[in-house]
Amino acid sequence: MAVPQEPWRLGATELQRRYREGSLTPLAVAQACLARLEAVNPKLNAVVARRDGPFMEEARAASERFARGAPLTPLDGIPLSVKDSHYTRDLPTTWGCPALRTHATGQDELAVARARAAGALIIGKTNVPEFALEGYTANPVFGVTRNPWNLALTPGGSSGGAVAAVAAGIAPLAIGQDGGGSIRRPASHTGLVGLKPSLSAVPREHVLPSLLLDFEVIGPLARTVADARLLFEIMRGPAAVDRSSLAAARAAAEPRPARSLRILYVERFGAAPLDPQIAASVRQAVQCLGALGHEVREGALPLDLDFYAEAWPQIGQAGLAHLFAQHPDWARQASPKYLDMAAQGRNIPAARLWQILEQVKRLRRASADLFREVDVIVLPSAAALPWPAEDAYPPRIAGQDVGPRGHAVYTGWVNAAGLPALALPCAPSAEGLPIGMQLVGPYGADEALLDLGAAYEEAWPWADRWPAL
Q1: Which one is catalytic: 63, 81, 159, 182?
Q2: Which helix (DSSP H) or strand (DSSP E) does residue 416 occupy?
Q3: Which of 111, 135, 178, 280 has the smallest set of CB atoms within 10 Å of its CB?
């Protein structure tokens, strides 16, 4: 006889099945998730704002709907967390900033509103680095977030609180955000699935100011591909308030190849170092994709990304300079490193920003051309295994000195190109630390990536891996 699982261990799709058959209720699951939060969050610092009372009331209402046989959607009664860079109508959105400790607009970001209207149970907000601009998770308001697989290490960032909450079983789903890899790299560091959707597949309304042009997108984090798809289906879809979402919907409706896929595996970006355990794990996963019947070849990424080595930090610097000009009260309480970044941003000439925008257009055109020759590009999600939780980045990878984005070389170009990318777990390291790869597809091919990810997961499942905690 199978041993009954604690409700907090169950994924969203399995919870839906249990709700429909009547063997579990959203109320029982909500109680289990709150108990799990109490047990593990003091170690992790993943959830930084809670709404226990409304959470339980909404769980009771969802239970009553299932008792009547009238659930709202497949997301009804499913607990999830929201990253603390998204507006929520009943909780502050601090963005990890001291000046925003009580910042509240009384509005939900559109994706949050869609999840709430679908019956999702929001358990709370998850921690981010200050201004969500780092690849680890710590800030002056709430402190450091830790990795469930090793509490001395970071879960990555900026969706670090989100991935820690899902990986630890606090809730099966999380709404994250990815401006340069902030869903995919944390997913890889915690053994999760994370989708960075095509630009505007999830429309934006009621948002914090953008610091990274139009690169920042909303996406789901989950333990399985099916669960990530469930949340994505609720959040996606065009909205008149975000005109670019109309183009995204049109691209999503284009037919995709039914044949075996042409996969390009890109292991290295020039001389940039890659942890050898990550290289071995991702290579093994790519071989698995080939075993599914797809055509796999290995080679360099045929895109010119040299421009972004210098331009990427300038984008954030210019974004902060603009933010602080609009909100000088926010600047007065910002940490010195961000004041320094903004000062550098103020010295960037307008012509340089225009040049960056032109390069972004060129990259998007070149990416469209590339995907006439291949269907999917596979890369590591991150170049480094998780590092000490208090440190912003690992200073060395594979024995080579690196800068602040040495661990992040594989992800930012996907945001600039506006492409979808799906992070999937691979075989863990010798120390038991999670490792991930990402599948990158043409604009609008989010569903095709999820289909490929689901086939890979069915053949080589990972959802039974849990941190000891």
Answers
A1: 182
A2: helix 412-417
A3: 280
